Amino acid sequence: MAEGKKFGTFEGVFTPSILTILGVIMYMRLGWVVGNAGLLGAIVIIVLAHVIAVTTGLSVSSIATDKKIGAGGIYYVLSRSMGIPIGGSIGIALYVGTSLSIALYLIGFAESFNDYFGFGLAINDIRLTGTLALVGLTILALISTSLALKTQFLILAAIIISLIAVFFGTSNFQPETVQLLAPRHAVSMEVVFAIFFPAVTGFTAGIAMSGDLKDPKNSIPKGTLMAIGVGLVVYIGLAVFLANTVTTDVLISDYNILMKIALFSPAVVAGIWGATLSSAIGGILGGPRILQAMSIDKITPKIFGKGNGENNEPVNALLLVFIIAQAGILIGELDVIARIVSMFYITAYGFINISFFLESWANPDFQPTFKIRRWIGLLGFMACFGVMFKLDTLAMFGALIVIGGLYFWLQRKEVKLQTNDVWQSVWENVVNKGLKKIDEQQVEKSNWNPNIILFSGQSDHQSYLLQLGKTVSGRTGIVTNFKLILDTSNSQPLKKSEQIVKSEAFKELGIFGRQIKVSNIYDGITTIASAFGFSGVEPNTIMMGWPKGLENSKEYSKMTQTLLYLDYNLLYLDFDKKAKFGTYDTVDFWWRETDSKNAEMMLNIARFIIASPRWNNTSIRVLFVNNNNVDKKIIHTKIYKLVEDLRVNVEIIIINNAVEQKPFYNLIEEKSKVTDLTIIGIPNYQIEKQAEFVLKTNHLFETIGSTLLVKASNNFNVLDLDFAKRN
């Protein structure tokens, strides 16, 4: 097994990367690319592919110089920045892509090897040669990683010699003119790009060896970017050379054209075999380390995390790589595998780029020593998914569905790491910028986005108050439930971490929970109402149960005065413990001339109620007490204009009360006795009459079901309900 040796930039990153870049696609398909796309088209394809490679290389290099890089390469980087669900889902995709790329390289090797020795080019012949090569390379990797890496120096020398032989060769296929654009009979540019793209994925071979590097933070940026840069120069130079040396028809039809034009063809043969075999070795060495790292993080079965020897060689993971690579070899078609590998890699690269963008944008602790512009990551992300969409939309959605499925599976698995991921920073940044935007906006009276402080107390029916609180807050409103712990001894307050209350009920409803110690319940409510919140999301509504038995309480009276002075919307629920909310079928809104502000708040509450799943089939009635003998048609028309924006059928009932002059509460008792929820406005009254108001309201609540009392703040518009003065 391998010795406990760590590798430097050249042997650990640059060499495995450049050998994979200058691999099977360069020798076996670059001429075909130039023939089908024309010289300009080929250069566009090469440059576009390298835009993705360069942006991804820059992104991963920047992340690598910020975080401690462990074994697993790109998977390790993503899981420590984006979190386990994304890191794991992309890591699995990258692992499968790396394993299949081994098959790509060995099929290319088999094509050249069989053609050179005349062993036959039938699909079964290719499969046999590819399988034997895979077995030999796997044995080499099992013997020694160090030995496998050292063979790469000989292969690199062979590639350099082969390129010299090609550039100094002669051609019997000299074109009369250079074909700049794609010929009519050419394959589509999308297919050409998909087959070419694996040529630029080789830079991940060095990153995958991160756990075996002496100094990954220094070696990964240098080695990766050097390999990508050298590869770009070689590919463009070779494309220009081929376009000027060989006719289009020959480039398209002859995959072995480089051997035929070379100064010394055996040198090209050695280069092809060396490049394909070394690329396969890169995958055989890198792929298992990705799987091993994921298994150590408990994403994949722990059996693949076990290693042998001083260097913890991933033998079990290597055997699974062998199986996947063998499955690819059995496909036997280089072009088919190239397209599959492209999708896996482009998807992974897209997420690597967005990972860097989010890290640099949102994470205040992101301080890489290798600094690049933030927009580079965003450009790489858009380029990846733009290319995927153009190449194969169906395959792109398929890849996203597979990765999305892996993501949600890992989320449910709840694998935890002792490390922060970037998403918390992202949300904090979004919230921070959103709050600043909200704070800059002038508050419009016509828009009410509820931010409710809820005092639900501790009772058997607390859940119903929580439920209604969430209902009247709407889809975007905020509800914070406060539990007040009475502590008359004035002991130490709760720690900040202890003040946060989490429960399944709160989580299901989307309610925030807090608890604090108070020496007096009413003073505690006043203090919270005065101090809780911050710019941008100031609470605007207080909600609590109806205060039965407190009609003579001076403390309650003082609290009410303070809440009115602070200009909160007030919501009091009297909950019918027997009927509860009935069947959630009927809601009555009671209006009178004094509800000029309350009426608009009730309309907003109505909008939120009918949008709630529990109340979506409810029948709403607006009942108006006509104490001044105004024409019912006039009242009906004006109320209809107010409620038509609800976009639901609202029954408007006008109760003529000019003659009988029945008390308001008596009318409510008659009309809303069996209503599931009755909503009534609290009139303006002097605080010294609070006791009288509470007693009358208590009597009302004895005869009707659950009732919500509403007192609107000055932020609501005045709806003129005094119709008498207009007639």
Automatic annotation (TrEMBL):
UniProt membrane topology term: Multi-pass membrane protein
Domain of life of the native organism: Bacteria
Keyword Membrane set for record: yes
Regions that span the bilayer: 12-32, 38-63, 84-108, 128-148, 153-171, 191-211, 223-243, 263-285, 315-331, 337-358, 370-388, 394-410
Protein localization: Membrane
Keywords: Membrane, Transmembrane, Transmembrane helix
Domain (Amino acid permease/ SLC12A): residue spans on this chain: 13-411
InterPro entries: AA-permease/SLC12A_dom, SLC12A_fam
Pfam families: AA_permease
Keyword Heme applies: no
Protein's UniProt name: Amino acid permease
Organism: Lutibacter holmesii
